[in-house]
Amino acid sequence: MSETPKTLAEKVWDQHVVVRGGGEGGAREPDLIYIDLHLVHEVTSPQAFDGLRLAGRGLRRPDLTIATEDHNVPTADIFAPIADLVSRTQVDTLRRNCEEFGVRLYPMGDLDQGIVHIIGPQLGLTQPGMTVVCGDSHTSTHGAFGSIAMGIGTSEVEHVMATQTLSLRPFKTMAITVDGELAPGVTSKDLILAVIAKIGTGGGQGYVLEYRGEAIRKLSMEARMTICNMSIEAGARAGMIAPDDITYEYLKGRPHAPQGADWDAAVVSWNELATDPDAVFDNEVHIDADTLTPFVTWGTNPGQGAPLGSTVPDPEAMADEGERLSAQKALQYMGLEAGTPIREIAVDTVFVGSCTNGRIEDLRAVASVLEGHRVAEGVRMLVVPGSMRVRAQAEEEGLGDIFTAAGAEWRQAGCSMCLGMNPDQLVAGERSASTSNRNFEGRQGKGGRTHLVSPLVAAATAIRGTLSSPADLA
Ligand SMILES: CC(C)[C@H](C(=O)O)[C@@H](O)C(=O)O
Ligand code: SF4
């Protein structure tokens, strides 16, 4: 064990310092950090590749760089040419760039294609103790493996491409300890929505969050990924969970995971990453899992959430002026009145998918509720797997048939209705229950209204037509 007790984040950081910045405290210069894995998608890479081309540079480590197509993918027919010109150009540009610079790319429809944050873990590329970056804010997802995983800007994307390093200032650390156990029907999505409601969308600013405690330890890897995914919605730089047997079980045997003696050696070193007992965090938050119930958002940021069993809050009752004004504006945009029971809010669309909740366990949860039911009259339901492999597995397990039998649309892999960059969009005034991670104005299409929910709530809502949990179906 190290002499000075360290947190998980500090250990991973220290293992990646190439050059330590001079100075002390706030005046400390950034460190130069080595990057183990660089994930690339079509939206944030074109300028970076252009920059390299202009400077006459190549990629420092094409072998540590992987690209996929996700944001602009039409999920209704992934094998047809993309109709939208902007999307098609974006995807064609990625293909040309990857070819020119020697980057491995999973194109639309390939069995390994999917949302960037779903395919990294799925391929075993994301591993404990790594530094993972991508020009995408939800890169925090990969922190569920005990890696420092961050979204970066386009100029940083170019820097990583050229040097495989990044110049970074150390973060502050925050422990989010979740004691107890989640009740049946309460998922990691409810937990993270409750965390963000508690600390606020700016509560994590400048921090790496480490989720710990009994309730976190009991979660599957996929549930942990949902939590780390949304760290960014609390304003954090990254979210992390220490690796344990659940992590190793998930990772073992995946295509890029170490094998044989290398695997054993890796596990020994990964076991040393956990935060030392005496390590000190810059900030600590405690949550009691036992008290949580299904949680949904009513407003236009992920922190504007409340228990499903409660009512739309009254802005007038909010002491903080900023909060009050933001709630007033949100309710107006959302077309909601204070005091309305949340369970009475009717939706037009249910979206299951995204890098938050587009994995196989999410689809299983949805199918378990939908089986033997029909999607309510007048409600459109999209079920969009996060990757083509998730789709294949869901088909093999008969989940696809359950979705179609219930009247849902069973799609191919992509970001889909998580954001309005492809044909899957809400029209103005339409309201959705969505398993994605962002609910700001227009996120799912201009004028669209989004309620963030768990997969279980999404499924029950599809059946009843109003925001509901499976318990309401009895
Ligand atoms: C397009 C991309 C840059 C963006 C992100 O960084 O998160 C997107 O994935 C999102 O979820 O809004
Ligand atoms: S699924 Fe949504 S949040 Fe995730 S990368 Fe795609 S657009 Fe961003």
TrEMBL record:
EC category: lyase
Gene symbol of the encoding locus: leuC
EC number: 4.2.1.33
Residue runs in coiled coils: none
Name of the protein: 3-isopropylmalate dehydratase large subunit
Cofactor note: Binds 1 [4Fe-4S] cluster per subunit.
Binding site for [4Fe-4S] cluster: C355, C415, C418
Aconitase/3-isopropylmalate dehydratase large subunit alpha/beta/alpha domain location: 10-465
